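Need the bound structure for NAP, inputs here:
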Amino acid sequence: METWKNYIDGKFADAASGRTYDALNPATGEVLAKVPQSDAPDVDRAVKAARRAFDTGGWPETSARERGRILFRIAAWVRANAERLATLETLNNGKPLAEAEGDVADAAFCFEYYGGLATKIHGEVLAVPGKAFAMTLREPVGVAGLIVPWNYPIMMAVQKVAPAIAAGCASILKPARPTPVTMLEMAKGFAECGLPPGVVNVLSGPGSSIGSALVKHPGVDKISFTGSGDVGREIMREGAATLKRVSLELGGKSPNIFFADADFEAAVEGALFGVFINQGEVCSAGSRVLIQRPIYRKMLDAMVEKAKKIRLGPGIDRETKMGPLVNQEQYDKVLSYIEIGRKEAKLALGGSPVSGLPKGCEKGFFVTPAIFYDVDNAARIAREEIFGPVMSVIPFDDEEDAYRIANDTPFGLAAALWSRDHFKVMRAIKRLRAGIVWVNHMQPAMVEAPWGGFKQSGFGRELGTYGLDEFTEVKQVYMNLDEKPIGWYK
Ligand code: NAP
Ligand code: MG
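Answer from helper R.:
Posting the output first, comments after.
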């Protein structure tokens, strides 16, 4: 079994206490790795290292070209180590290997994208009256705490780390407790690629101790968080004491809307892909499937038939299309929602034990795809984020009905709609209250384009140029060009 260390101030080290915890392989329930169980003193060391890099170490003063070059080197390191990173991601998170490979490729490109953007950070000249000159500078926000969830352990982290480096920030990354392995591994790349000590630090440990310590630490200027709404609210409360800049990428209960004129075959697969990819552990999962009445029954039946054939197994097996959930806690949560759903709606598929798994997977956290239908949008399985392979199918009559149901949710992360009528498509795009609207697809997330939520799905944006803005502050510069005294006090 491998062990990993924290990466603090350019060095690999155990937690100060010497304590470790086990990271599991969710397909087997076996221990995959021992990682540091860090605590507040480790956070303090990492914050001090980041502060030194930022305040006196000269990191913000490095040229943008140099920061860009470092990011390109890290991207090359990720590509050179892609196989190992993807394998570890699958072993630690559970997702099918092909998905992990896609995530690693996205991560490499994300470093390249922000490597290119590093040299394009600039302010503007402003028209001001009189003999004066005004401009803005874009400066790094300072030391940033980066707190991420376990569903896309590499991508969730890299889409924060890469823009932080490009902007000239120093950061402390806390991976989620179940899935620390790949970002601790990637720290080796940060060291090899010439990132100066303290610029990025990576620590594993519980959110309740090290996450909270980051949020409270006066040496941290900004928290960039991806995770649940409950922890997001806690971060706002705790961060208020030191007026932290906060950006929050939270959950959702996203509608995937199928109009009767949609291409039928594409619709059936799109509905399944929208909610079952990554075992349903997707913040933008299309967990509410809204179907127009004329195709409701036919589409439901076709979805059930196709979903029955989704192959469950360990992600490391190339035939697998759905891996295990991440851990016991998530497994129990999803099964409890299936029980809740049985009382609220009709179950067309799922809710039974998994059969046919390979030997060794008896203790894996596998849940078969579940499809509930005739779901009332007021039901708990239509309102609460389950974060697992559970679909709630809801019928609708016309466009207005679809928008009303779609927007009747506290969340606003994502929405998708399927139709071949471009008039209807444009009307829907304008009516749906969400940070992304997909048309005739669901889930592609591009590094070049902004990602984030409306309403209780959070605020701030990641990816694209917007993701870089989150790591900068705007400084105004006003220069008097008139050499005479002001002349106010005669
Ligand atoms: P979570 O329970 O909110 O945890 C997220 C991170 O916060 C973890 O690293 C966690 O550490 C840490 N944390 C826990 N308590 C904390 C505290 N008091 N202070 C600071 N940090 C703390 O979320 P999760 O269960 O990992 O992930 C699922 C959630 O993430 C879902 O709601 C999903 O929708 C959301 N998500 C959103 C997006 C998006 O882009 N909008 C993307 C992916 C996931 P521990 O691991 O130790 O608990
Ligand atoms: Mg959690």
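Comments: The mean pLDDT is 98. The domain at 2-250+457-476 is CATH 3.40.605.10 (Aldehyde Dehydrogenase; Chain A, domain 1).
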